Amino acid sequence: MNVKVYSTQYCPFCDAAKNLLKSLDIEYEEIDLTDELEERLEISTKYNWRTVPIIIINEN
Hints:
Elements: E1 3-7, H1 12-23, E2 29-32, H2 37-47, E3 54-57
Parallel strand pairs: 1-2
Antiparallel strand pairs: 1-3
């Protein structure tokens, strides 16, 4: 399983999501969007979602 977590620093919901994945022994790649405004806008548009965390599983 391939899991990506798009997050920002100081995001309690991001921390909760990452803690849940860790507790389930699910490995994930974290992409920190804190200082990446352009990438954040691209991701928001691509997935039609405006808030973090954005969790993507098995993207092709």
